[in-house]
Description:
mainly alpha; two-stranded antiparallel ribbon; two-stranded antiparallel sheet; flat
Amino acid sequence: MAAATIPDIMKEFQVPQFITVEDRIVGPFTLRQFFFLLGGASILLVGWFLLPLIVFFLLALPAAAGVGALPFAKVQGLPLTTVLSSAMNYYTRPRLYVWRALPPKGTEPKESAAAAKELEQENQLRRMAGQQLAAAPKPGSTDTTLTEKRLQDLAWSLDIKETVERPLRQGTASPTGGSGEASRPS
Length: 186
């Protein structure tokens, strides 16, 4: 009996391995590490020529340590540059994240379409009468009708205000003082 041949569709292929490891381009350094070290060395070289010797050493030692740590240090498996950029984003962006579902584009709920049509008719009547349409009832007015959307918006804003102001009203001294637990909004 002849040896079994493997069909063309079942040929062996090389599977790439170590795809998460960066290539060593310049000696023992990756390209990213090399450019960090090159940039740090060039800054130190400029400082050597421009600064007095004492000032240079006072500034160069911490700078060299920082530049040396950038390409090599890892925090919980992440490069230090990623950790630092994430920290900067955290401290510069707002901390209150609110997600509200939006209806799909091009479709409107039937209730809001009917409400919009009714509002447009009311606007036309008021314009014809020469009155301006107020966005909200004026204080002291007898018009106290609230739409469902307005009620949802008020409930949402009160809920947000409550969760933001609750830690201030609880009267905790500091996150590290007292019982050792940080005050967190619930």
